[in-house]
Each structure stands twice: as structure tokens, then as C-alpha cells.
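*Target chain*
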Amino acid sequence: MDIRLILTVFVAIVSLQGSLGAVVDGVTSKTAKFAISAFIPVAGKYLADAADAVIGCTLLIKNAVGVAIMIGILVICLLPLLKMLAVILLYRMSCVLLEPLAEGRIIKCISDVANSMTYILGIAAAVAFMFLMTITALILASNISTMIR
């Protein structure tokens, strides 16, 4: 299977799950606020407004934590990706430098290893991208549910 197709399907599924979950969260929040204001006789409206403030504050905290997690994921994923890129460049440079000295089979072997490492780099970058997309979808889902409220 092509990695572009896998990434496309993954992004579509994560986006749909985030949107559907956000709609359910928004409806649940609206229902809870209505139930609090309707069933508690005197202080119901005040408690519903307080619940709305609490939900807003938790959304702010969730967004801040989500952004910190995204930055952490970028930092964690960047170092191995740069190391793989450096190894690929070293293999390519060794192919160029050994071309006049070594036998053709050795050069082809080193070149094939560099090509394999390029595929591994692409797969690792795609997995990092999918992880970032998942975190982004989770953050956006909470924002959509707040807009529905």
C-alpha cells in the first residue's frame, strides 16, 4: 500500500472521529446546563453559569496542555529524524568518495542501504505526522464542542 493513501485515510478517520465526538460533547454540555438550571429551584441558573465557566477554564487548560504536547512531540521526533538524515547523507557521501576506489558491487550495496534508510526516514516522518494530527484533532474537537455550546 502507498503511504500517501494510508496517511489520507488516517487523517479522514481522525477528523471524522474528532468532529463527531465534539458534537456529542457539545450536546451533552448543553443538556447538563439545561438540567442544572431547570431542576435546581433557586440557584439553578447561577450553577449553570458556573458550570459554563468551569467548562471554559478546562478548555483553556486542555488547549495549553495540547500545545505543550505538540511541541514536545516535535522535539522528541526531530532528533531521530535528523540522525537518520545524517546517516543517509553519510552513506551517499561515502558512495561518492568510494566510487573511484571500490568495486561496483560495494558501491551498489552502500547505495541500496542509503535508499532503504530513505524509506525508513519517510515512514518515521509519516508516523510523527500522524501522531501530531491525532493530538491536533483532539484539541480541535474540544474547541468545536465549545462552539456548539
Q: What stands out?
A: The chain has a mean pLDDT of 81.
